[in-house]
Amino acid sequence: MTTYIIRRLLYTIPIVFGVLLLTFVLFTLVGGDISIEIAGKNATPDTIAEIRAEYGLDKPLFLSWDSQFINHFKNAFTFDFGRARDRELVVDKIKRGVGPSLALTVPMFFGVIIISVSLALVIAFVQGSMWDVLAVFICVAGMSIPYLSFILFGQYFLAYKLGLFPVFFSPDLPTAQYVALPVLIGIVSGLGGNLRFYRTVMLDEMRSDYVRTAFAKGLSTRRVLFKHVLKNAMIPIITRVVLAIPFLFLGSLLLERFFGIPGLGYLMIEAIGSRDYFVINAMTYISAILFVVFNVITDICYGLVDPRVSFE
Amino acid sequence: MGWWTRGSHLSEHRKILKTEQPKGRSLWKDGVRRLRRRKLAMVCLAVVVLYFLLAGFLYLAELFDWQVGPIRWQQEVGKSYQPPSRENIFGTDIFGQSVLRKTLYGAKISMTVALCASFISLAIGVPLGAIAGYSRGVVDEIIVWVYSTLSSIPYILLILAFAVVLRDKTLFGYKLTGITSVYLAIGLTSWVGICRLIRGEVIKHKNREYVLAAKSYGSSGRRIIFKHLMPNVFHLVIIDFSLRFVAFIHAEVILSFLGLGEATRPSWGAMINDARIELSRGVWWQMAAATVAIFFISLALNIFGDALRDSLDPKLRIQ
To answer: What is the 3-state secondary structure (H, E, C) of chain B?
Structure first.
């Protein structure tokens, strides 16, 4: 087990290297020198040179110990992402945004999983009936509505027209109040795709021989569904669930933007608007690291829930 | 000769022939036959074709300067923010332009983005996947490394990073404006799924008899991949294409909303973006029109894509 984990972690090294290479190519080679943009229109050459020196843009690209390429890697490993365009440390910005983002995404995440997995079990029970067809149709219809429409109409009708929820974030509101509507919208819009996915997983399991055996033994439907099917459906469920966790830290780009929640999604949108490569670079790197780590965790979880998986 | 060329008086004769020597059907014929039996899927296909015809027609109209409604979307047809009425079915926007015309014109932009992005991503993903799966070894490891790297960055961040960097850049003497940077960003980042799928499928097919036979009479690797393996895995590409297209239409909306999309001409994403401010004034029709337009093509493609998968994927035949 330990050797497996170590070997699995060693596999992540080339991936992390690749991510850093990609961000370097994107933001330094293709993105180019944005010091003139930062300095503004009426900057003197001295100011521009100063900015270039501060961000290390005056150093050679490659082929030197102090090159931009080497520094890109050095900074990433020490989690030192320098300053954003408004001179605040990028790390501070990110730390500030994690709280509100998680307050929004964690309830949404659990809401979607619990509702869609239990509904999928119910649908697996009535498979082939009219209810099944209807549920699948509603799922597909829900997936066909653009995410933005869910948000805009939800905000307009539930908050603005009916006044059930606050329309925008404000610092003196309790957390539960300002995240309630975004969470609700997130769950409703995410339900279609998830429910359909879990339904397929459950139906795949329902076709297996052990289910027929269990029914033949005379077990009750509830027992078959919860004791047998659910356990065997765990592998695809875990893959989907654990790999979604890194995205929780990213927050929700669009929901945060619309409801003015000052999380990481909002930070990203601001960074895109002002072409702040430093923030986007840091966010890309951190989320990639999280994703890689959770990938390893998924593989270990397989072994914990499924004794057939060996660590050799 | 297909069945439609034969006269009905031959049907008795054919029945006899069939019992003696069952005629083989190809995977494709079989799939199409099964697909035609699904009425709902055919209706959905008709809807999709209609959207494509609309977009194609608008291209022709622009080329030959036909003065049809959607081309003249800039024209003022009434006061600003007129609610839906008999003259303007979807009302007017802030400049008094017809929302219906903008929605129709938006089809051209959105369909172009989705189509170009699909082609770019498939053109990268399919050959890479086939080469990786067939050659294995170092080549395989490099390709797998590249796509593992890309897939470890959250998709939306990756697209945004590409879109931000590519926007208004000059590459090879060609300035990337508006939708070009959008479909490049989408296309360059979303080939991972199909690449992985094709690679796995090619590995499965690699040791089948037909590949060994081709190898034994001296076919080159390139010939085996593109002449023998490709036709046998290509149904996956078509299924993937239909579902990919929907995802890209939705991606265009999000990119346009974030100000990374088309700025001068109407697209569905730009219309929804406009609606953000309009909604607080009670102007819902521009939003509704774009949502309806996206809803129908997505629904049709989703249902058609599922039917396509059920008809073409032999593993699911027993249903």
So the answer is: CCHHHCCHHHHHHHHHHHHHCCCCCCHHHHHHHHHHHCHHHHHHHHHHHHHHHHHHHHHHHHHHCCCCHHHHCCCECCCCCCCCCCCCCCCECCCCEEHHHHHHHHHHHHHHHHHHHHHHHHHHHHHHHHHHHHHCHHHHHHHHHHHHHHHCCCHHHHHHHHHHHHCCCEECCEECCCHHHHHHHHHHHCCHHHHHHHHHHHHHHCCCHHHHHHHHCCCCHHHHHHHHHHHHHHHHHHHHHHHHHHHHHHHHHHHHHCCCCCCCCCCHHHHHHHHHHHHHHCCCHHHHHHHHHHHHHHHHHHHHHHHHHHHHCHHHCCC
